[in-house]
């Protein structure tokens, strides 16, 4: 792994977290280096894979033991509107002989087999811990394969031990910047071409937003990387503006595309009614400043007025039942504040929100929403989560799937809001879905039954079986 590239990503100048550090601390990096083989589920490789796998028409080849591909495949419900190549798991399945003799020939053969059988527009090649330790040069193999087969082979040099998932996200962005973005020209361009960066189309969330942009005549030049095609990403340098959805993950792409290609960007959110409207306004204003028709702003306001009216009418029937209900939110990144905003719009009280993966700007937004006394949680063990659910008298826990068992133990309703979720919560329609799912969880009669004393503790006599 190239040390200069890792150091560059560690010291990302546009990262608010890094800006708050001293020069000495910035050189130390953002994250603790993990032990090889002991970083499953949150390593740099995992972060790179989940950031790029939503590019749906390319082949994603993992160079390493089969467990690396097995642990990373399908861990996010990123959906495709067409191509399905990304759903196939490709791996070199390295064994002991590869460790002894090196795995480069094995890797080259795997690339050839993929191109001959599946004919993808490109192959994304992921480095993992084992080949990185033994010295396999995936960049040299990728270059040789590109020349041999006339097909782009993109090296993604992010072995797990170099750091955590967030570092892997950024290293994936560097691979796109170095080998993909700017390598092709778009077939057509318009004055309203927009890049959306850091959106992965989880559960189809991009499709909640795209129809709104279509109605405004705004064309998504490329979504990096949800439901993306290789050509779209490769030609995305001709877009007129960009929206960054998650600054924690791919801020380096937004910053460098502005530096190299003059594409201005802003950070926004598609969660919640007010944040969705603010994002549409910012998109319209940015595009108009770049030459889009001036009536775009007026048309955007008309669309917002119509959509907000319909959304508020839809969720109003739930508000009496949700008013004053207390929610504990354990997520991170952009959702740490954008979901807070959505919940408060529905009348819920947020008793605490996780900021483990949030930037300084994210935390500032939380304080603006919840006040100076906002309960922001950096890390929380299951035992602490259980205690907080009880002490805060939370009515619902909103977190990732692994936390549902804490909620069940506390006899509290649970709603999955992380990447494993099966519901799309983005946009105006997504807000309606979010509120309806919260209402459904809170009114589920099973929790009232769970909280009642067991028959054998309340003096009831059980009828013996005959």
From TrEMBL:
Keywords associated with the record: Nitrogen fixation
Annotated InterPro entries: Nase/OxRdtase_comp1, Nase_comp1_CS, NifE, NifE-like
GO biological process: protein-containing complex assembly
Residue ranges of domain Nitrogenase/oxidoreductase component in the record: 43-442
Entry coiled-coil feature ranges: none
Pathway(s) served: Cofactor biosynthesis; Fe-Mo cofactor biosynthesis
GO molecular function: nitrogenase activity
One Pfam family in the UniProt entry: Oxidored_nitro
Family the UniProt entry places it in: Belongs to the NifD/NifK/NifE/NifN family.
Biological role stated in the UniProt entry: This protein may play a role in the biosynthesis of the prosthetic group of nitrogenase (FeMo cofactor).
Protein name, as recorded: Nitrogenase iron-molybdenum cofactor biosynthesis protein NifE
Native source species: Leptospirillum ferrodiazotrophum
